[in-house]
Specification:
With 154 residues, the chain is mainly α. Helices cover 58% and strands 6% of the residues. Strands 1-2-3 form a 3-stranded antiparallel sheet. It starts with a strand and ends in a 5-residue tail after the last helix. The model has no long low-confidence stretch (mean pLDDT 91).
């Protein structure tokens, strides 16, 4: 089976099915809206700068949050704008990887995913659809990382 994201001489080729693209289609808008809220599942997207000093941690948050939110929103916009593309350039692939990573962090937080969790999804689990999405995003992220890494050392 050919990779779904592959490095070429002209960037990266995307081989996503319409179903795979449809799964991704609504996620950027949902994430941008969540970034504007105080949703606790976004905690892992903005780790505290200082673990043992609440005052400095709050100062750090005030100094960095707006820039981090803008950067994350820009990545989700690139994902949204290039979702139907057959090719991505380096910057677009980097934005995809950032967006996919952030999606997985939020979903993992909502699901309470740990290192000990089994990768298989139990179809009887009430969270099966979200766990399947989490697995799909991880697989797609792996595809993107493999494609980006294939050009290292050239």
């Amino acid at each position: 089976m050919k990779p779904h994201i592959e490095r070429t001489r002209r960037g990266y080729r995307l081989r996503l099915s319409e179903e795979e693209r449809a799964v991704l289609r609504g996620l950027p808008g949902q994430m941008r809206a969540m970034l504007d809220s105080e949703d606790p599942s976004a905690y892992r997207l903005f780790p505290p700068g200082y673990q043992d000093d609440p005052r400095r941690a709050e100062e750090f948050r005030l100094l960095t949050r707006d820039d981090l939110v803008a950067h994350k929103k820009a990545a989700f916009q690139v994902l949204e704008e290039t979702l139907d593309a057959d090719r991505l350039d380096e910057d677009q692939l980097a934005a995809w990887m950032g967006a996919l990573n952030d999606l997985r962090l939020v979903l993992g937080t909502r699901l309470g995913v740990t290192d000990e969790d089994e990768p298989d999804v139990d179809p009887d689990d009430p969270d099966a659809p979200v766990r399947s999405l989490y697995s799909f995003l991880g697989w797609l992220m792996e595809q993107a990382v493999d494609a980006a890494a294939s050009g290292l050392g050239r």
